[in-house]
Amino acid sequence: MSSLEWPNFFNDKIKQAYCDLVFLLDRGFPKKSSLNFVGNHYIFDINQRNVLFRAVYPINVVRTVKDHLIRDSALLNNKGLHIDLYNQLFTYYSLINQDPIIISRDGIIRDIFTSLHREKDLKITHDLISQYLSVVSHLNPNRVFFYLDAQKSHSKKHANLISELLPEFDISGECIVNKTVDRFLKEQTQGVTISHDSVILYTAPYCFDFYRWVIGSKILPLVSTEGILDFEKIM
User: Fold this and answer.
1) Average pLDDT of span 93-98
2) How far apart are alpha carbons 67 and 51 in whole angstroms?
3) Cys bridge to 106: 62, 64, 162, 184, which one at CB 3.0-4.6 A?
4) Residue 139 predicted with pLDDT over 60
5) 173-225 confidence digits (pLDDT tens)
């Protein structure tokens, strides 16, 4: 799916499929089998199914995530942040490259990077990390913990790069490279979690939709809202 095809994607068919999937999940049907059923019914390809997977969550998850959300960025001032780094960098890359992104049913901004690119297309460079850290610094955290999946290529190299750059942005923090990042983030009870993984957001005591803030505050002035598909408003 290219960006050129995207405007035609948000049509009545995908909206009806979204409503059908919501109906099934809210009645307790498993997400994987429900998505397979709906996807087969509408003859959707893997990219359409991927978008639906990222857009739809059952009502209990939606309510819990919204309860955990901190909506005022000022409340993060001098707080500790726990950032699911690779998860967030895919979205950052999508924003600065003006790729389409979605607002899911739980109100969280998510990318569809894997529907548009291969995972290795994300080049984690000195410039990319510098740009990202510059944006993070606007939240004025007192300490930032960056979690990197050990199974990702060059994770230790990326961690070293981040550690070297932190002083440039007056950020106190550390990098944690681990094979079970999701578990670490699900179990931490201090500070505010920044991720768009629903499993993590469901258990985090406090979370923050970093990219909704980025878009709303115009920290990145070149970011456009034209490519956003707002599934939250369908129902």
Assistant:
1) 85
2) 24
3) 62
4) yes
5) 999 999 888 888 888 878 999 999 999 999 999 999 999 999 888 887 666 66
CA distances from 114 to 135, 164, 234, 235 (A): 24, 29, 24, 26
Q: Which two three-digit tokens encode residue 127?
A: 């410039």
How much is the pLDDT for 23?
A: 98
Q: Is 187 in a helix, a strand, or coil?
A: helix
Query: Which residues, in sequence order, are CB contacts of 169 under 8 Å at separation 6+?
Result: 133, 134, 136, 137
Could you say which DSSP state residue 67 is in? H
**For residues 235 and 233, what is the distance between their CA atoms, to the nearest angstrom?**
6
Note the residue count of the chain. Answer: 235
CA 10, CA 27: separation in Å to the nearest integer?
A: 25
Amino acid letter, 125: T
> Across-strand partners of 81?
144, 192
Considering only CA atoms, give the Rg of the chain: 18
Cβ-proximal residues to 99 (8 Å cutoff; 6+ apart), any chain: 3, 93, 111, 112, 113, 116, 117, 227
> 107 vs 42, 125, 209, CA distance in Å?
25, 30, 9
Nearest-angstrom CA–CA distance, 146 and 140: 15
**Average pLDDT in the 46-60 region?**
93
Q: What is the pLDDT of residue 63?
A: 96
The string of pLDDT tens digits covering residues 3-15 is: 445 557 778 899 9
Nearest in space to 191 (alpha carbons), one of 213, 207, 176: 207
